[in-house]
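Notes, p. 3: input format for complexes.
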Amino acid sequence: MAIPFVREMDFEYGVLQDVAPGLRRMVVKNPGGFTFHGTNTYVIGSGEVAVVDPGPRNENHLKSLTKALSTESITHILLTHTHMDHSPAAKPLKENSGAKTYAYGPHGAGKLDMGIKVEEGGDMEFVPDVAVRHGDTIKGKSWEVECVYTPGHTSNHMCFALPDKTGLITGDHVMGWSTSVIGPPDGDMKDYMASLDLLVARGDKTLWPAHGDAIRDPAPFLREFIAHRHAREVQISACIENGLTDIRAMVKSMYADVDERLHRPAAMSVLAHLQNMVATGRVRCEGDVTLDTVYRNT
Ligand SMILES: [Zn+2]
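Output follows (298 residues plus zinc ion):
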């Protein structure tokens, strides 16, 4: 079975589009290899609204969004996580609207107690006004969401659930167009897999990702998503079995048909899997789990 990717999307940049009852979406014009058509900014409710993931600093997007909401007021700004394509516009939007920002915490917040310094690529300036936790409810006049903590893609990743499991705003945790990048040290495969299981257990009807269109049949999608990660770990074990005991050698074999420029992110993904496999006792190594470590099956 293959992952039933969703790559079609009907949208226009700069237009705030109704996508579901009480939910609107505007796509930032920041298309790219990691962002697909661009970042989806969601607007929840009407009249007094919440904006989710205002995106990178992009003047045109902010102007269009503010104009589209000119007869309404923004009372809350919610962030799924703090990558540069999601949170930097929270600052000007907050200044314009006076709304408070809500998120799990600053970049790396989920791993602070482990003393892990996070990689660049995060929005290191962002600090939420209100730090939210799993199960918290955020309420506006015309809307309400429940916070669903989903670490893995980043340690501070939060999804936001619409009432009665009608929909879940999934950020970069689960996207229809691509698998997510899990980059250590802030990204964590063990957490990521647990966060996928959490979504399976929840059973939300529709998933609304930060890039690409909605996933309207989440169950088979999530099943294949999880199977894909398990298949990668089986491949890694097979590599070790065949004497490919370091990550460079594994990537050369596992990604032989992939552009060499993508071998570096692929190596980070294999590293993330090996961290998970070592943590769960399926692979062993001397010392830390790094790109240069020699791995053995247990
Ligand atoms: Zn991200």
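The first helix runs from residue 59 to 68.
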